Amino acid sequence: MSAPKKVVLAYSGGLDTSIILKWLQTEYGCEVVTFTADLGQGEELEPARKKAEQMGASDIYIEDLREEFVRDFVFPMFRANALYEGLYLLGTSIARPLISKRLVEIAAETGADAVAHGATGKGNDQVRFELAAYALNPDIKVIAPWREWDLSSRTKLIDFAEKHQIPIAKDKRGEAPFSVDANLLHTSSEGKVLEDPAVDAPDYVYQRTTNPEDAPDQPQYVEIGFERGDAVSIDGQAMSPAEILTKLNELGGAHGCGRLDLVEGRFVGMKSRGIYETPGGTLLLEAHRGIEQITLDRGQAHLKDELMPRYAELIYNGFWFSPEREMLQAAIDHSQQHVTGTVRLKLYKGSVRCVGRWSDHSLYSEAHVTFEDDAGAYDQKDAAGFIQLNALRLKLLAARKRRLDG
After folding, report:
1. Which residues pair with 259 in a beta bridge?
2. Is 274 marked as a binding-site residue?
């Protein structure tokens, strides 16, 4: 790969990406444009601007992408009820395609010929960033310093930072207790004190959720309104997508909802242990499944559940911009035409349960399921023929077995 002339760097303002900024300048002699996305990670982003200015970034982009993140990425994913390996709500995975999208767009706006990220060569994020970038611009160069440089230890990183007068927070001089990724959907903690999966995670790892044992002794009820599969209101108050997820985080976090301790299979081959907090997403998933229970036909619902693991795996593995994900999305979105109504959740000591759901689009018929007189809505005698037809092949199999065994 020829040396880039201008690079757009996904920049957090932290030590690692600050070192990358300086390394790009010294290694390639190129201009560096920084891009910092506000995805609801809960950090003040102005320090990142000042740091980028001090380090000679040629252009600085800091953008609030919270609404786009929830509207165009989180909500479509939740229409599918996506869970990776049956448990993980994909909080890190779903943020990467949006960051990559803006990196490629900013490269086009600024005339840059390359983009760069701070993901290591051991994780999934390098795959997600780069697959998304190439899907959007097949000619873009992608620089992954962690796969190129010889700064292979924390000591070497600190030495590089001191040599180039990059500010180092005091706690960065020692070993960080664990690594954190955060956005409006979740927090993810990995590494160090969490690397032994046999050891319970210390309570200080959790940042968004109250310990369920310390949560309020009284349950709280919350009602979430849906239109065509997307949440649109909380307790009758209309809100934007990002506002809804922010409020659900607050409600779920206060009651200790959404904690997950998971050993997952990374796309690159190894297993890793992560501690995830997804309070708002956990409420949203329970509510969405609740409204689907009364608005989706059985065939639709069961097919969706069959498609979901494949859809979730595509997102986890970095294929958000693939044609197969878009095909599945089209089917999922089609299923949501009547997923409109309201769900009532009960939050208590780390649990969230759907305890009520109603909709003008409901397929639920009390007349058909009642144990009381159904006034002719359903003829129970019809079940006999239904059972006989479905039993026919089972009878033939049993008869053959008896004949051969006899």
Report:
1. 277
2. no
CATH, domain range 6-66+92-176: 3.40.50.620
pLDDT tens across 233-254, in order? 999 999 999 999 999 999 999 9
Residues 277-293, mean pLDDT to the nearest whole number: 98
What the block records as the tokens of 333 is 């979105």
- Count of CB atoms situated within 10 Å of the CB of 69: 25
Strand residues in 80-161 grouped as ranges (E): 114-116, 141-143
**Does position 221 have pLDDT exceeding 70, yes or no?**
yes
Rounded Cα distance between 334 and 325, Å, is 14
> How many angstroms from the chain centroid is the CA of residue 251?
19
- Which tokens sit at 147? 């796969």
Quickly list DSSP for 71-91: IIIIHHHHHTT--BTTTB--T
User: pTM of the predicted model, to two decimals?
Assistant: 0.94
Would you say the C-alpha torsion 21, 26, 27, 28 has a positive or negative sign? Answer: positive
The domains of the chain are located at 6-66+92-176, 180-358
| CA proximity to 143, closest of 34, 304, 24, 54 | 24
73 versus 121: which is more confidently predicted? Answer: 73
Mark out the alpha helices in 143-265 (DSSP H runs): 154-163, 241-254
| 15 is an annotated ligand-binding site residue | yes
- Residue 348 annotated as part of some ligand binding site: no
Phi, psi of 47, deg, nearest 5: -55, -30
Q: Name the 3-class secondary structure at 344.
A: strand
The answer to the question of whether 43 is labelled as a binding residue is no
CATH class of the domain comprising 180-358: alpha beta
Query: Which are the contacts of 296, defined by CB distance < 8 A and separation ≥ 6?
Result: 304, 335, 338, 339, 363
Tell me the helices (H) and strands (E) count for the chain, helix number first: 13, 14
Return the active site residues. 16, 96, 125, 179
Q: Is 84 annotated as a binding-site member? A: no
Residue 406: strand, helix, or coil = coil
* CA 233/CA 198 separation, integer angstroms: 41
